[in-house]
Write a structure and sequence with these properties.
single chain; 299 residues; alpha/beta; Arc Repressor Mutant, subunit A; D-Maltodextrin-Binding Protein, domain 2; 3 domains; five-stranded mixed β-sheet; three-stranded antiparallel β-sheet
Length: 299
């Protein structure tokens, strides 16, 4: 059977006919005239190559083919009605939704973790799937629906995406509690004298944009270890003589076990934004998700 011959109105009419088993009552249920519904029944018989409903002394009797169709038809239409209803009247408390978010490990800790905790309270049927951010593929992932939302630093290539600013991030220098030399990191010369751990998300790198800033002032630092994730850095520095520059927000709740100092000479900043594609712009669930994220970061 060629399903392109079936339109949704015919299936809705078939459902009403199979429930009422009477053309007059089914027509009233659908706010159609009896001749109009009879014409639709004839089209349905042609499409399914089956009488579907046969005249009887009590109205109409469904054929075996019609009875086979009734259960799947009602289920499919109910799911469609629920989807349309959810779109028109979204309720976080009852909605079943899944949001896929692309981000770095740092953003996962700083933004996504608070979001998950918030959803457990406000949208208990929601699920969050975290994808590791790949800047070169992000645009395509958002367009294809592989991810619904990206949380990343601002770049020129994001011009064709919807964006919402979340916060500006700065760096601080961390070391173990009582580190004898960490205070030297308040100057470029002092930082260059310290043994350091850096993060190389792509793996294996021993330099970051900070090295360009140091080089401009005539200094070169000593990097003795390169981690692939910010999340291991606090534990590594707290158990060694290494120091590390990390985003300030990464330290929420961890300051007691670390020595933390500001680095006033380092003007390096980055902006964190929500990014999404036009395909989710008007979706009520995604609109709600985007709305609740910013307040979580100022609490």
């Amino acid at each position: 059977m060629d399903i392109t011959r079936i339109d949704l109105n015919l299936l809705v009419s078939l459902e009403a006919l199979l429930i009422e088993r009477n053309v007059t009552r089914a027509a009233a249920r659908l706010n159609l005239s009896q001749p109009a519904l009879s014409a639709q029944l004839n089209r349905l018989r042609d499409v399914f190559e089956d009488p579907l409903l046969l005249p009887s002394h009590r109205g109409m009797t469904p054929t075996a083919r019609a009875l086979d169709l009734l259960g799947p038809l009602r289920l499919a239409l109910a799911q469609l009605r629920n989807t349309v209803s959810m779109h028109n009247s979204f309720s976080p408390e009852t909605a079943e939704l899944t949001v896929a978010i692309a981000c770095t490990d740092y953003v996962e800790a700083v933004v996504v973790m608070p979001l998950i905790l918030e959803l457990r309270e406000k949208a208990p049927n929601a699920r969050v799937a975290v994808h590791r951010l790949n800047p070169s593929k992000m645009m395509q992932q958002l367009a294809d629906g592989e991810v619904d939302l990206a949380i990343a630093s601002r770049e020129e290539g994001h011009l064709h995406l919807h964006t919402k600013h979340l916060f500006e991030e700065t760096y601080v220098l961390i070391g173990r509690k009582g580190h004898p030399g960490i205070r030297r990191g308040a100057t470029a010369e002092g930082l260059a004298s310290l043994k350091q751990l850096i993060v190389s998300p792509s793996g294996g790198g021993f330099s970051t944009p900070v090295d360009a800033a140091l080089g401009a002032s005539g200094h070169q630092r000593t990097v003795v270890a390169s981690a692939a994730s910010f999340l291991v850095v606090p534990d590594l520095v707290s158990a060694s003589e290494l120091v590390a520059l990390v985003p300030r927000r990464l330290l929420n709740g961890r300051i007691p076990e670390l020595e933390v100092i500001d680095v006033p000479w380092l003007t390096e900043r980055f902006q964190i934004e929500l990014l999404w594609h036009e395909r989710t712009q008007g979706h009520p669930a995604h609109e709600w998700i985007r709305k609740i994220i910013p307040p979580l970061l100022t609490a």
